[in-house]
Specification:
This protein is of the alpha+beta class. It has helices at residues 29-37, 67-79, 118-127; strands spanning 4-9, 12-17, 41-50, 53-63, 84-87, 90-93, 101-105, 112-115, 145-147. The protein contains three helices and nine strands, in the order E-E-H-E-E-H-E-E-E-E-H-E. The strands form two sheets. It has a six-stranded mixed sheet. Strands 8-7-9 form a three-stranded antiparallel sheet. The chain is globular, with a radius of gyration of 15 Å.
C-alpha cells in the first residue's frame, strides 16, 4: 500500500495520505486518464525509511507522467530531504539536504506559512512530507519548498517563477 497520493498541477505538489478508496483502476481509471489529458499528474508514492527517517521516494504515475510533473516531484523530494527519487524509468540521486526555512501559501485563506525549526524538520523527515493542512483555516496546503539563505547561492532552490506556491 502506498504512503501518499500526489496530485501535481501547475508546478504545485499536493499530497494526501493514501487510502484504499482512492481510484487505481476499473471504471474510475477513465477519470484518472482524463486528468492526465488535462495536464494534471496523479501518482502514488512509497516512502522508504531508514531509522524512522524518510530517505527514498518511489513514484508510480497513474496519469500525466510528463517532464513538468517529474520536475515538481524532484523539487519536492529534494526540499523534503530525500536522498533518492525512484521514477518509473530512472533513479535520481538528489543533492545533499540541508535544513533551512521552508514556505508555502494556503490555497484557502492565502496565508503564507514559513518554518525552519528543528521540530518542524523532525516531523517532515519522519513523515516524508510537509504539513498538508493549514492550521488557520483547515484548507489543504501545497507541499512546501525551501527558501535559500540570503547569502547562499539560490540556484539549488526553485525560484517563484518555477514554483509559484513558494512565494
Amino acid at each position: 500500500m502506498p504512503d501518499f497520493r500526489a496530485t501535481i498541477a501547475r508546478g504545485s505538489v499536493r499530497l494526501v495520505d493514501w487510502t484504499p478508496w482512492l481510484a487505481t483502476s476499473g471504471p474510475l481509471n477513465t477519470l484518472l486518464q482524463e486528468r492526465g489529458r488535462a495536464g494534471v499528474a496523479i501518482a502514488d508514492l512509497d516512502v522508504i525509511r531508514e531509522d524512522d527517517e524518510a530517505t527514498e521516494l518511489v513514484v508510480r504515475f497513474l496519469a500525466g507522467d510528463r517532464p513538468a510533473a517529474r520536475a515538481a516531484l524532484r523539487r519536492h523530494a529534494r526540499d523534503a530531504g530525500y536522498r533518492r527519487l525512484w521514477l518509473p524509468d530512472q533513479v535520481l540521486d538528489l543533492p545533499a539536504w540541508r535544513p533551512g526555512r521552508a514556505s508555502t501559501r494556503c490555497s484557502g485563506c492565502r496565508a503564507t506559512l514559513t518554518d525552519g525549526e528543528p521540530g518542524f524538520w523532525a516531523a517532515v523527515r519522519s513523515s516524508g512530507c510537509f504539513p498538508t493542512v493549514c492550521p488557520l483555516c483547515g484548507s489543504d496546503l501545497p507541499q512546501w519548498c525551501q527558501i535559500p539563505p540570503p547569502d547562499d547561492d539560490p540556484s539549488p532552490t526553485p525560484s517563484s517563477e518555477e514554483d509559484p506556491h513558494c512565494t
